């Protein structure tokens, strides 16, 4: 049992190094996309992955990168199962991931998906990732991707993306 636990812990360590293709400072673990790691009866490593949205074009790439990363550490055989039993939510992002987003220049989601209700909660006053001011203004609901909105800080005058609460 201890050997299985060690193997699973190793897998989590490796997965922490698999970067999101869109925001490379975040790992699939930071984003909360990994919903579980287990060893099945056939001694296969099973990784349950929930993409940030069901039609994510990077899903196949992520599956391949995960299997490759585990194989590089001799953690084989490994299989990635896409788990769409629940829709991904920003609530699954780790606190470390949110801090990495902010350091990267993207304001992390504020609040929980439940607080946002059934739609994306947007308002002026999101914390600027550059100068930490709340004197910010929503410029447009959509930015480089649908999950981000574009804001501008009225103190440092820098534009920035806000990762919407989903």
TrEMBL record:
Residues 10-72 form the MIP18 family-like domain. Residues 120-164 form the PaaD zinc beta ribbon domain. Coiled coil: none annotated. Pfam families: FeS_assembly_P, Zn_ribbon_PaaD. Signal peptide: none annotated. This is Phenylacetate-CoA oxygenase, PaaJ subunit. The lineage of its organism: Bacteria, Pseudomonadati, Pseudomonadota, Gammaproteobacteria, Moraxellales.
